[in-house]
Amino acid sequence: xxxxxxxxxxxxHKRVCMVFGAALGARLILFFVFMYLQGISVFWDGAQDIRTxxxxxxxxxxxxxxxxxxxxxxxxxxxxxxxxxxxxxxxxWGSWIPVVLLQIILASVSAVLVYCxxxxxFSEKVGFAAGILFALEPTSVFLSAFLWxxxxxxxxxxxxxxxxxxxxxxxxxxxxxxxxVLAGVFLASATYIRQITFLMPIACGVFLAALFVLxxxxxxxxxxxxxxxxxxxxxxxxxxxxxxxxxIFDSWxxxxxxxxxxxxxxxxxxxxxxxxxxxxxxxxxxxxxEEPAGYVWPRSQSGVFNDETGVGLYYEDLIIERTKAIIFxxxxxxxxxxxxxxxxxxxxxxxxxxxxxxxxxxxxxxxFTEAVLHGDIKKIHDWFSGGGALWFGVGIAGHIFFTAVSIxxxxxxxLLAVSGNRNKQIAALFLMFLFLYFALITGPASYRDxxxxxxxxxxxxxxxxxxxxxxxxxxxxxxxxNKIKIxx
Length: 488
Known about the structure:
This protein is mainly α. It folds into 2 domains: 12-46 and 96-254 and 330-483, no CATH class; 256-329, no CATH class. Helix content is 75%, strand content 0%. The chain is built from 23 helices and no strands. The chain has helices at residues 2-12, 14-38, 42-45, 48-63, 81-93, 97-121, 124-136, 138-143, 150-169, 173-193, 200-214, 224-236, 239-249, 256-275, 279-283, 316-329, 331-365, 368-373, 377-385, 388-417, 422-442, 449-452, 456-484. The longest helix has 35 residues, at 331-365.
């Protein structure tokens, strides 16, 4: 009986199982390869941020509150969501292995969510193509097993996207309110994991206002009350943490990292850009620029502006004032720079800068180039057997994959803009809005693979939907032409 039900489920949900299986299989393969080459501890000890999350989680278990790495002062650099998630597993098992395995499963479910969004708002083929693209995208596969927050964050973000789209397209009043509340719950949960979405509720309001103007009838009076419910939930759920930071650090920010992303990672490159002999050469990564004179920045590497000291939010006003001084000194030039470095950087520029950066670090910094030139077989062998080739290959593949999807997304977005289906247009516009939001917030820092991660589902959905729509139009045109041909 159970066996029959199992096979019936597989038969009726064939594409769901294929997307989930592809995602799970790719992640398990990379998991076992990394574990074989570098040991299982690489997943929770392989980078500074990973170790930081682990320390914060252990402090939650030990002290019962969100204490910084120094074990004394309250934490202000990170939001508490992901450390609390890790703390739950550490408290139960005293091991990170269950978290690693759960994240692999969550990432595979995320691929299914991409499929479901594509199927619901575009077509079965679009959902399947987008789900497979996401399932096999190298950066997504790579990040899943490591104790970075992106996997859990993206899972919650996809649930927000699904229910917000349902809110925008629902007809029944009860469904409108239910979907709006659920969208708010998942957005607030995602914000507790990564504060990058802390402006999303306001941005969603702007998006709906624009939609009201551009597409008459897409946003009506029936959307107003549910949207206020969405605002109440999405903002209200994170308000207690903002209140905590106000009482302790005299700052309403969710965490010091939010200001770093919005201001520091944008204003600092702008200061370097202003100092470059060739601004074009700097933008394409072909010129090394000296640090601008007169700008002294608190950097996390210095031990002054990081969570080890427990004073992150105390320096927030300092960094904001310094960044504002640079931005407001040349506001028009800054706007142009942000457009280029944000959108262009996210799509293309930082991809190739990252390839050069990764190549310089792995090939030069690890001595691989020198080993090849001197015929040092042992060092070359150690580089491959120690996982160096794998780190390099996965990173490069991710950047190339991202560039290809970027091109497909641009073409697909243009094609979708001229489609006549209202729900498809609303879904496409919302996905474009998500891309623009994350490009504005993270574009200048997008050379880091994982900072691009949140925007990828929107990109694969737009790429798959646009191309499918284009192919359907070409087939319809060919069919029409064949019908009117007069046989000889």
